[in-house]
Write a structure and sequence with these properties.
The chain is 30% helix and 27% strand. By secondary structure, it is α+β, with helices and mostly antiparallel strands. Among the domains are: 4-77 and 224-239 and 252-257, Nucleotidyltransferase, domain 5 (2-Layer Sandwich); 493-597, Dna Ligase, domain 1, CATH 3.30.1490. The strands form 9 sheets. The chain has an 8-stranded mixed β-sheet, with helices on both faces. The protein has a 6-stranded mixed β-sheet with strand order 3-2-1-4-11-12, sandwiched between helices. Strand 31 and strand 32 (655-659) form a beta hairpin. Helix 8 (261-276) crosses helix 13 (483-490) and helix 10 (392-410) packs across helix 11. The longest helix is centred in the N-terminal third of the chain and has 29 residues, at 201-229. The chain is globular and about 80 Å long. The N and C termini lie far apart (54 Å).
């Protein structure tokens, strides 16, 4: 038997742990990501608690075979601008290229244009120049460059990003600067032709800066975890989840690949579990404590190769995930005229008001007030000492006070319950709009899709979100509350190599590219093999980035013959944009090789309770504006094929599922929960003309 495996998703509010015992069964655990009064690191603490270790007891390294993690460390550092002070090294005359950017106007009618803060704090212009065809216009002055870099080092900079004009293809000058910087002693050197070897100085430069800015922060965290798990260099294999949906060894984990580390695990978990249940057209709905991540799946993982994260352009393969600031910890606001949800979050400390740490009202508190979340079904881990139940009294008092304030401002009598439902309606609308952005607005009809709900807070809102989308089926896995952690455990080891081409598609070009394919494939396979994967477990995929001549949008298509590539591109282009332009030449912008080390198949034993106590009690709730006496049922005790009609609440260790009126829930043989709308939605009615703070905010979005 192999040893313990721990699959960990360290989120913004909660850290989720799925542990696989040596006998193959699993156990799940959830704890606050930040609880400095009790522990330093949530991931290590989660391992300790599952193994039943007291504080100070050494970890039994010999009993742990692997630890696989996703982390928000890099994302948080980017959002909070707390990365490593970084200097940008670029070609003379292009110091402001990244600041100027593409002159995009995200908000077309905004009069006060707020530019995002640049990540670098110093720019050094190097006197060199290479033309687009590779000819040397101005040779690199090695002596002058060394002097400039030495001055940067003396100013205290440890991280630099080197991005020269046309450096993605003609790399000699970047290599020379890299060598000089190593000799001087910079601890983090990110070079654009290694980080993002593709055309476009701005996105290539931004990505290189992101890598230099975040990698030191990430490395310190990885080393900290590594030292605790392997204090003498021996111990479990430590791997991290990348934004592209694959695992990599801890020492190959880079800043540019860490921005969607945890959410990517959720998408992998969604696909693996939903396909096992027989669903292949999926909308992912991952609602956690800080935000909600949504994704679309129709047979293959969708990736984006250029995106913006926290106002920063990043050009690196990432699973296509859209995030909206609506989580269980999203703070509830009233500004005197309208209600708002987020974007700020109460986080884990102090957390929502019900945590008993003097936190603000949040979405979780709304569900507590409405009776959908009850303290008797939550562990006593709240309060200043981490030993108290949910604080319902404080929540009730705060909502009563807020209801009075809203009533006075709007002139419409409001109860605490109507205010709480109003905030939930706003949050649901925000989440539904996010899903429409990655599906309906891209031409997909999702009414026949399955909404795959996961994350700690997802089950509380799944029916409401599905109703807003017109989706009538929801899938919730037994480990939905920790599905991102589960997906991290089920993920394959992946490595992607990219190269620029920028030439017209032709049979001659495809022949000329063969040596480059061989080189890139060997590189990717070698990286995966070094992580302990056998040759017969590695598969490779080759893709082109293709665009029309004169256009800016490249689509990813499988490599093949000239006619096959053209046919695949035109099919995608017609689906995405509604037209094709056969008269235009096709440009191969880039080529990509992905090596996949297929993970061992995992037969997940449910580890569910064998209790026969299905009905935990009947409690008062408010749903759809009406009071209900609602049964609370233990999900583990549901009988296969026997539906539970809403209103009802299903309780389990890692989450709560609210079955709204008009919905039913049925457990499958595998323990999956299938929710279906069994009563048609009522016809919509006019909302009237009275001032309504809730509708004002919904229409404002």
């Amino acid at each position: 038997m192999s040893g313990w495996q721990f699959w960990i998703d360290r989120g913004g509010t909660f850290t989720d742990v799925v542990a696989r015992r040596p006998d193959g069964s699993t156990v799940t655990h959830k704890l606050l990501s930040e609880n400095p009064r009790i522990y330093d690191d949530a991931a290590i603490q989660g391992i300790r608690e599952i193994l039943g270790l007291a504080n100070g007891d050494p970890l039994p390294f010999e009993d742990i075979s692997a630890v696989k993690m996703g982390t928000t460390v890099a994302t948080n550092a980017l959002l909070e601008r707390e990365g490593e002070p970084t200097a940008l090294i670029t070609t003379s005359g292009f110091a402001d290229a990244l600041r100027i950017g593409y002159q995009a106007r995200p908000e077309l009618f905004a009069l006060d244009i707020v530019l995002p803060e640049m990540l670098y704090t110093k720019v050094v212009e190097i006197d060199e120049r290479v033309s687009a065809d590779g000819s040397i216009i101005k040779p690199l002055d090695v002596s002058a460059a060394r002097t400039l870099l030495e001055e940067v080092r003396k100013e205290g900079f440890n991280a630099i990003a080197i991005a020269l004009l046309h450096g993605y293809r003609y790399t000699e000058h970047e290599r020379m600067l890299d060598e000089i910087a190593n000799e001087i002693g910079f601890q983090q050197i990110s070079v654009s032709h290694e980080v993002s070897p593709l055309m476009k100085l701005v996105s290539r430069g931004d990505t290189t800066v992101v890598d230099a800015y975040l990698s030191p922060i990430l490395r310190r965290y990885v080393n900290s975890v590594d030292e605790k798990l392997r204090p003498e260099g021996l111990g479990p294999n430590l791997m991290f989840m990348q934004s592209n949906g694959g695992l990599t060894d801890a020492h190959h984990f880079r800043g540019k690949d860490a921005l969607l580390s945890g959410p990517a695990g959720g998408v992998v978990g969604m696909v693996r579990t939903a396909e096992t249940a027989g669903f292949d057209q999926l909308i992912g709905f991952d609602m956690g404590g800080t935000s909600t991540d949504v994704s679309h799946y129709a047979g293959e993982l969708e990736r984006t190769h250029e995106t913006q994260v926290a106002g920063v352009r990043v050009r690196a393969p990432m699973i296509h995930i859209h995030t909206v600031a609506a989580g269980g910890g999203s703070i509830l606001h009233f500004d005197g005229s309208r209600l708002r949800v987020g974007p700020d979050s109460a986080g884990a400390d102090p957390g929502p008001a019900c945590y008993g740490n003097e936190g603000p009202l949040a979405i979780t508190d709304a569900n507590v007030l409405l009776g959908k979340l009850r303290p008797e079904f939550f562990p006593h881990v709240f309060g200043r000492d981490g030993d108290q139940p949910l604080d319902v009294k404080t929540v009730t008092e705060k909502f009563d006070e807020l209801a009075k304030e809203i009533s006075q401002a709007s002139g419409i009598p409001q109860s605490a319950e109507s205010v709480a439902e109003g905030f939930l309606s706003i949050a649901v609308e925000n989440m539904a709009n996010a899903i429409k952005k990655i599906s309906v607005q891209r031409g997909y009809d999702i009414t026949s899709y399955t909404l795959v709900c996961f994350g700690g807070a997802g089950g509380q809102h799944a029916c409401l979100v599905a109703d807003r989308l017109g989706v009538s089926r929801i899938h919730i896995h037994p480990h939905a509350g920790v599905l991102s952690a589960l997906g991290i455990g089920l993920a394959d080891i992946r490595h992607l190599s990219e190269g620029a081409v920028e030439s017209v598609l032709s049979e001659e070009l495809l022949i000329d590219l063969e040596p480059k394919w061989i080189s890139m494939e060997a590189e990717s396979v070698n990286v995966v093999k070094k992580q302990g994967v056998l040759d017969n477990q590695i598969t490779t995929m080759k893709r082109f980035g293709i665009r029309y001549a004169g256009s800016d949008t490249a689509l990813q298509v499988d490599a093949g013959s000239c006619s096959a590539v053209q046919e695949s591109f035109e099919e995608q282009h017609r689906s995405r944009f509604g037209f094709i332009s056969p008269e235009k030449e096709l440009i191969i912008e880039s080529m990509q090789v992905e090596a996949v080390g297929v993970s061992d198949s995992v037969d997940l034993l449910s580890g569910q309770s064998d209790t026969d106590q299905d009905l935990l009690g009947v409690f008062s709730t408010v749903m759809n504006g009406e009071p209900h006496e609602t049964p609370f049922v233990a999900r583990a005790a549901l009988k296969t094929g026997k539906p539970v009609l809403g209103p009802a609440v299903l309780v389990e260790e890692t989450g709560t599922t609210v079955i709204e009126p008009g919905w039913s829930a049925t457990a499958s043989e595998n323990g999956d929960l299938i929710l279906e709308r069994v009563v048609a939605l009522p016809d919509r009615v006019a909302i009237g003309t009275d001032v309504d703070p809730v509708q004002l905010e919904i229409f404002n979005n």
